[in-house]
Each structure stands twice: as C-alpha cells, then as structure tokens.
Amino acid sequence: MSGQMSTYIATGVLYALLYVIGGWGLNLQFATAGIINFGFILFVAIGGYVVGLFTLGPAGLTAGQQHAFFTRALPFPLPIILAVVVGAVLAAIIGALVLRRVRRDQQAIVLLALALAAFYFVTADPGFLNGSIGLLLIPQPVIGSNVATAGYEWAFVGGVAVLTIACWLVMRATTESPFGRALRAVRDNEPAAEALGYNAFSLQLRAFTIGGAAGALVGGIFAYFLTVWSPSAWGFAETFYFFTVVIVGGMSNLGGVVIGAIVVVGMQQAFQYLPNIGTSNLGVALQTICASALTVVFLAVRPRGILPERLHRVYTPGAQAAARRGDFIQGPARRRTAEPERALAEMGEVDTNAE
Amino acid sequence: MIHALAVSLGSAVVVAAVLSLATIGFTLRYAVSGVFDLTYGALMGLAMLIAYICASAGINLWAAMILAGGCIAVASVLLERLIVRPMLSRGATSWVMMIITFALGLAIEASVLATWGPQFTSYALVGRTYHFGSVVITTDQLWIVLIAAIGTLSIGLLLEFTQWGRAMRGTAANPGLAESCGIRVTTVRTLTWLLSGLLCGVGGVLIAIQIGSFMYTSWEQFFPLVIAAAIVGGVGRAGGAFAGALLIGLVTALASALLSSAYEDVIALGVLILVLFIRPRGLFVRAV
Amino acid sequence: MNDTQNIEIGIGNPEKRRGRVLRLAAAASALSIGLAACASGHTSSSGQGVATVAVLSSFTGADTGYGQEGMSGCIPAVDLINAAGGVLHHKLSCQAYDDRSDPADAVPEVHKILASTPSLLMTLGSGGNTAAAVVPLFNAAKVTVFSETGQSLFNVNHYSYYWRDVPVDASQGYAMAIATRMLGYSHPAAVFGQNVSSQGSLPSFVQGMNLLGHPVATKVLLPTSAPSYATQVAAIQSAHADAVVGEIDPASAATFTTELKQVFGHLPPLVGDQATDESPFLKAVGGAVGASTLRQRLTLVLPVASSTGPGFLAFKKALLSSATPNKTTYVTDSYSAADYDAIITTALAADEAKSLASANFERYIMPIANGVPGATVVHTYAEGVAALAKGEKIHYEGASGPISFDRYHNWEPGYVLSQLTPGGVKDLRLVPNSILRKLEVGQHATVG
Prior knowledge:
The structure holds three protein chains of three kinds. Chain A is mostly helical. Chain A has helices at 3-32, 41-63, 78-101, 104-124, 126-129, 150-175, 178-188, 190-195, 200-226, 238-249, 254-271, 282-301, 317-325, 340-346.
C-alpha cells in the first residue's frame, strides 16, 4: 500500500472518529436528554477557534496577515484542553439561558438561530476571527508545521483514537449511571420526573454542557488537522450530518453512534468516486440525497436507529404496548379518532394489545 | 440622517412586502399541521426557476408567477399527503418533522443544482422609477407591494369571514375539537397546504423579482428572515405575519443605517431569538 | 401545540434484538466500507500513456462556479496539448474534484487525488477557502499546484511547488485606487463584499486612495446576499460619491447594482478588479441591469494581458471549439485563461525536463514563464514543443500575456484599465507601475 493510500485511509479513519466523538456529544444532548440541539455545529466551531487562537500567537497572526480579537501561543496540549473547557463554559451559559426560558419545541429553533447568527457575525467582522478567511497556519501538535507524512498522520489518528476511548469512558459513566437514568426520566416524562424530585433543568444543563464540550473537542482536533479554520468548515447544515449519525446509528446507544459514523463517512467517501457528468458534480448531489433519504427512512421506519437504546425495566402496560409498537422516540400517536377505547389504550389504561 | 431613515423606511416596506406572502404561507403550515416546514425555502427556489422557465417560453411574468405558485401548491399537497401526514399519524414529534423536512429540502436543493446547475438567471424586467421624496421605488416594487397588500388582505378576510377560513383557524387551535364539531380536518389540512404552497411559490417569485438576478440557492438568503418574521408575528395569523415581516424589514434596515450594514442578518436573527425568549407566541398575538 | 415531548421508553428482549440488529449493523458497515474500497479503483482511463491534470476546486458550496472556471481553462489546454502529441507521449486528461468550498472536504480530496490518480502531472484550483489547507499537502507530496487565490497569506511563499498566476488581492486594491484617479474620480465609494477575496482587497484600496490624496467618500460593506441594499445605496448617494469601486460576490452584486441603478436613475460608473471579470459576476449583474449598460459603465482593472495576442487567440479558439459547457461566457474570464496558461507552462516544463515528475521539472517553470536571454518566444504548446525539439530555450507568452514570477512564485503583473466588449475585453490605458510600487510600500503618490 503506497504512503499516499495509507494517508488517505488515515484521513477517513480520523473523520469517522470525529463523527463518533461529536455523535456521542449530540447523542447525550439529544437522544438521552431530549434537547434538540439544531445548533450543535456552533460548539464544533468554538473548539476550532479556541485551538486556533491559542496556537497562533501574535507571530502567527502576522505571518498569515490575519486579525483576531485575542491570541496567545500556548504549548501543546494546552490549546485543546482549553477548547474543551471553553466549549463547556459556553455550553453552560447558552444552556442556562435556553433551557430555562424557552419551551422545548422551540429550543430547536433558538439553537439553530444561534448557530446561524454566529456564522453571520463571524463573516461580518473581519477583526473578530478573521472573517470569511478564518484562521490559517495553525501549527499541528508537537511538530509545529504541516508535515503530512503518513507516519505523522497515523500518529495523529492514534492520538485521536486514545481521546475517543477516553470519551467513551466519560459517556458511559454519564449515560449508564443514576445521572443517565434521571436524564431519561426527564426526557420521557418531565412532569412525572419533577414530581419525583428530579431537577430537570439542572440535569439537562449538565448533559448539554458535556455534549458541548465533546463538540468543542471535535472542532479543536479538526482545526489541528486542517491547519485552517474558517466559517466554510462549520456551516449550520453540518449539524445535519451529526444528526444522521445519531439517528441512523442508534439513539442513545454509544455503539450505535459508532456504526452511524462509519455509515456516514463511508457514504461520503463512496459517492465522491462517481464520475462527473457535464457541469454538475453528481457525486456530491447523490451524497446529499442519500444522506437525506437515509435519515428520512430511518425516522419513518426505524426511529431507534440500527442499535437502539438498551434499557432494562419497564412498568406500565401502556409503555409496554408502546415499546412493542416500536415508537421509541415518537410521541403518542396523534390519531384523530373519536374512539375512546383506543385513546384510553394509548394512555395505558386499558391493555387492548394481545401479547 | 433623515434622508437615510426615510430610505430605510422605504426599503423596509419593500422587503416586508417581498417577505410577507411567503411568511403567511409558512405560518399557515405551522399553525394547521404543527410542522415547522424546512422544505419551504427549497420550494421557494423551485418556484423562482419554474417562473423563469415559463417566462422564457413567452408567458407573461405575472402569469408565470401564478403558474409557479400553482406548481408549488401541488408539490406541497404531495408533501403533506405522502410524508407529513403518515409521519404525524405515527406520532412523529415536531423535531422529527423538522429533521425530515430539512433533509428533504437538502435533497431538493442537491437535485436542482445537479440538473439545472449554479447559473445566474434573471427575469428581463423593464420598468420606470418613481421618486417619493428620498424614497425611490420602481414599477416592479410597486407591483410587489400591491400584490403583497392584496394577498395579505384577502387571506386575512378569508381566514376571518369565510367558512373555510374558520375551519382552518379551528383546526389550528384545537384539531380534536374541530373534528368533533364536524370539520373534516384532513380536507382542511390539504387545502391549507395548497394555499400555503401557492403563497410559497408566489413569494419566491417576488423575491426573485426584487433581487434582480438569482440562482437556485438565492432562497437561502431569505429563508431565515421568513422564519424570523413568522415567529415574531405569531403563529397562523395573516396580519401578524405581515406585521412580523414589516418589523424584521424595519429592524434590519434601521440596523444597517445606524450601525454597520454587515450585521443585518445577525440582528434579524437576534430579534428572533429575543422574541422566543420573551414572548414565544409572537409579538402580534394577544396573549390568550 | 403539544408542549411536552413524550418520548417513550423502548424495551424488548435484549438478546434476540441485539443479535438481529448487530447483523444488520455489520452489513451496513461492511457495505459502506466495501463501497469505498471497491470504488477506489476508479479513475478515468488508467494505465500507460495517460497523465492527469487534477482540477480541485469548488463545484458546489459558497464558491460555486470556480470549479467550472477551472475546467474551462483545463479542457482547451488539454485539447491543444493532445492535438500536438501530448506530453512525453502521454495524453492528458482533466479530472474534476469538488472541494465544496470547505477545507474539511478539500483535505480528504487531496489525499484521494494523491493516492488514486495515475500519473498526476499537476493540480489546478483552490480558491481562498481551501488553499491554505491544501497547498502544504501537495507541496509535501512534491506535486505542482497552480491556484487562483489572491490571499496575502502566500505573498511570501515558501512552498516551492506552488505557483500563483493571478495577482494578489492586495495589489489589486492599490491598482484600483490608481485606476480610480486615472479615470478622474476623486471621491469614490468603496463597496466590498464579505467573501475572502473582497476582504483581501478592501484595505489596500482604501489605503491607496489615502496615499493618493483622495480618501474614499464612504466605505460600504455589503452583507452577503441581503434582500435589499437600499440603505447602502442611500449612503453612497448622500456621500455624493462619483464612482462605485470595489469587489462583490455575484449574488450580492446583482441585487446591489439593480438598486444602484434605480436610485441614481442610471448605473453610476463602476470600477472593478479581476474578480469582477469572472463569468458568474458578469452574468449575474448583466442579467440584473442589462449587459450593454454594464459594458458601458464598468471599467475593469485587469492584469496586463494581450487579449488580441496570439496566445489569447489560441486559447479562445480552443475554448470555443471544445466541449466545455457555457463556453462563450468564459472567453473573457481571465482566471480560465490563467489556468490554461498554467497547464501549458507546466507541460512545456515537463517536456524540457523529459520527466513527468514535478520534482524534476519544477525548476524549468520559472525560466519558461519569465524567459531567459535568447529564448524563443512561443505562444502555443505546439510552438513550444517544436522549439524545444530544436534544442532552444523557450519563453511562453500565453493567454494572459507575458507573465513574470517573482522569487515567491507570485506574479506581480502590470495592470491595465479595460472595458468589456461583446467580443471580449478592450484595453484602454496601462496603470503606471511606478505609482503602484510606491503605494505598495506606503509612499504617497499622485496621478498626473
């Protein structure tokens, strides 16, 4: 295998790992805690910029004729650690505002609007984060400049793999713990959970913060890898691919997210090989269509994803019936019938399903 | 300063007019089906192209606009029956619908770009310019304002005074109750999507006329404004939607006159976020 | 609206479900990996006798249109080269790769190109959004790259395999300032958009006008693709600007010029740079205000290119007889012409070095482009090959006219004021180089 092919595969593996880490972050926020974060990519953006700002320093800014509101060169691994910390802090602030004051079904719109507004703001002000051009010449960990040998690439991937395992431990500790169970209770039935004494807001805020930190980690790694971080790398539509990873792979299932990441990255790379017909790039179009179709089909047919959430106990017959129906993430069916029996069955009062 | 503010006011009115019909169409879908339809923007873009194709074939532009509206109306009904209704009846929640409609919008955009290509086109428009003091307006912009005003008024009257309008409002407010009152909710929904599709198409063409020359992705610049106007104006009210569009137009125009013009979009989205924090039902809806 | 999201718990027999689902998951993963792996065998006609020019540029995304521009320079060049026998008995072919205007997508494409393209001769493309990420990778792999970003990042360029045959954004800004004064305007409105190259030329234009003693009347930044620019147009009007100078992306430009024409009653004089010469811009604005109006009112500040010279005519002829879509719009596009020249120059260097490897022919590129004393001037690939066969040194002057690279592999062209005509571009007056050099080092100057 040539060195170039080896580097190409290393890149693919890296992207899959990044989708895994980001997918886990979104998974925690969205599938486990029930917060629909349509602005997830904002945290990825934050992580990337923090790494850029804390690696370039004034010398780096001048070398690339760039402008930023603040910079200071710190040695590795401080910048990436800072990226995670800043991501967590900003997630906590945003979460504190959005989760408390905005209704659940409108949280999605607010978060989407935030990501969009951030994009417009960064491109509008060239002095803040160097506008559309973005931060350039970001030095890579340890070696400093972009060397791109196959050996370094694989070492980079190795480092990210270690980080991924660390993330997995954190995520597992978070989701399969009393904290995780409390989160799910809040997600499924907030009034009941509150009545039981859980503080929904505090639980969700913690989940949102950890998820945001994961997103920032992805952004930081990305910035190191690309050595460039500009608004074109974090358009709001990128959030959609993270959602695809979680929905297709498995809602609230860590292994499922891994599968989802492999599917998405594999699909992205596979379609790039189609020949171009005429002026259009058919590969890109088909890739988008395929990702969309995959998401829609899964939401319609198997909303739990490939590897669904694993849970252990259930109590009410109504919930049992719902589970057998397979409505993992869907609300009670809004059937507009006047039949009281069916309506009551949905509420779990009467068990009309033959077991 | 006065001059700049006068111009801002003029431009705000035009922008509001351009956005208003599209906003009403968007908010109707949200009201009656509960779906925050993110395919809407891609359909607006499609309407622009359909109108262009018709106009190039020799059809009068305004007729082409209605034709494009009709096509999108049909597409919307298909969307409602084939995707929205089955998913809703399985109990899909609002975010599921948002993701599905967003995915569909992306798919439509990718298909159009692959076939039509990223070229710029324009309707060949010729018109006179009129000056009202500091405000300058062209024939086409006058037509846009007229169409928007008539459209908003008619839909407002439709919703308020006709049987169908009442059925729509009833379904929006409480579908279960509407059903038991004898309203055929499914039919009302289909008709609402039909009407909303017409507005979407017409709105898209109006946008294309305003910006002069467009390519398929030009709808992306307007869609956040439509969403902002719809939310600010409140769900399901024609007058509210127009007021929301006017407010968004005013805010962005004033912002660019007083601050820097680079932050228009940020400010429009900021208004949206603020409204969702403070008064999620919308600014122009009486708190019930 | 349903205020609470009732998400129900899913359960079931974990063991049975897991088994079935894991098989499904394994199948899905295998399918994706299999697809990617199997597909990696694809290229165009692989095997002996074919060399590839990779066009890694934006076919989708924010910079849509650059990709097609690149292909419109590549296809005529490759046609002419193949007609003259190819490069060292290898036929060339253009391969398009989409970077989606996004460095995150560009980088895997680079690795894919390097891993799977047989006989890669060179790479074309990479605009401002992706160049900084892409160029170091190609350079490390010793592959020649020509690209069109004017970013000042590369003004001091140490990547020995990287060349730019388009002028830097900053110098275009200074040239526009001089041109504005040459046309007799003393209080222009500086109007720039938010994309990468606009943000590159604005500062130097403003500074240039200061140094020339006539500061701009107003500075207007256009947010990309806003619904209306009426306030900005009003600002220009109230500043009593006598010309509108700048660089805007096509989508915003269409709306902006429409409203400009409305408010002023006519299109005020416009001065634009090379980016304004690009096909998407001209199509967008021409569609909005009328092509003939645009031609009358727009003055372009372009790098000196002999648009009637034999090099350009060869390019034009090859382009119009090629299979390129929308070819007539690219005849006046100086970026396509620059790409065409890039390929021909590289091919000639490969011929002279008798090797297809950039590591071997890279040092011939500068002499061929800049010329050495006693070199034969050639205007087409065929002429170049013939001269090389006779053992002569060559100096290639192509569609962009004479190019001269400085030691950083950048081209510091002379500039010329030009006007668009239905058939192409007409040169009016040269921008004095002496004044340009003064502005670039911050000295005051006057335009006589």
